[in-house]
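Researcher: Let's run the pair from yesterday's discussion. Sequence first, then tokens, for each.
Model: Starting with the first of the pair.
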Amino acid sequence: VPDYWFGSPEVLTANAGLNRFVWNLQWPHPETLAYSFRGTPLDYIEYTLPDHAVAGNTPDNQPPGPLAAPGRYDVVLTVEGHTYRQPLTLTLDPRVHVSQTDLEAQLDLARQMGAWMNMSYRAYNEVARLRAALDATTKKLPGDSQTLTLARELDEIQNGTNAAPGFGFVNRDLARFVTMIQSGDMRPATSAGESAAVACGALKNDLARWRQINQEKLPNLNALLKQNNIESLRTVTVQDDPRCPNQ
């Protein structure tokens, strides 16, 4: 995609006097992994889903953050330790005929899925860093069964298997679902919520395996590395499980 398609980020000016800043009415965008439709990692970003591309104003991050629901908000500006606050009322376009409850349901589900995307994004990159370190360690212990088994398990929770999607696949599916439910001003279909719940369950299972690796398998492997005067592999504190619907 040519760079001129993307909009420039809104940046507050530091100039004195009256300045204009336009809010795009969106919550922060979720973190998205570069994954193909078939669930394989890519070295580039696909821009195949947006149907609202405008030269010079296309969101760089896909999917973009969910739209804020109508309601009362506070605009807060902090400058040199001083905080300025002004109320803001967001009203529904009179041409749109949808209930407040439906819009809030849409926003709630989109934010839930966005949070799960952020979790899968973080875990995916944690696994990627460990895999890189493990590759270097494996060269110092060629043929060791522990390192080979761990390498296989890390690949499974990062990229998935036919039976269980990994962090990357979960992130990709959630990106598709959140794009679908934001395609119009409406309450999300029941099937969308059900699909999101399945992805959340897969994320929860992957995090459980990732937690076990850090709490049990890595300490055991590090003991072996210490015996061979090899630098230990770093463990991480795995984030808490997501709150999945109906679980």
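Model: Moving on to the second of the pair.
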Amino acid sequence: RRAAAGAALLAVVALGGLLAWRTCHREAGGSGPVEVRFEVLTGDAGIETFPSLSPDGEFFVYAKESGGDMDVFWQRTGGGNP
């Protein structure tokens, strides 16, 4: 249940970022509909919070409780470790 809540939070943040980007980069004539695809980026158990995407979209970071402490994790959006 906690993992589902974390995934839902990540999806909401990603959708908000996409909508903000589209609003800022919309051209006068519009280019028509854009296909949007969501993907699960982490497989960790527990809740992941405070996600942030790098400017080039290649990496993302998030915070997660690990061993009783909050730690920051850094991952490639395409998978694998940096």
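Researcher: Give me one sentence on the second I can quote.
Model: Residues 10 and 75 are 14 Å apart (CA to CA).
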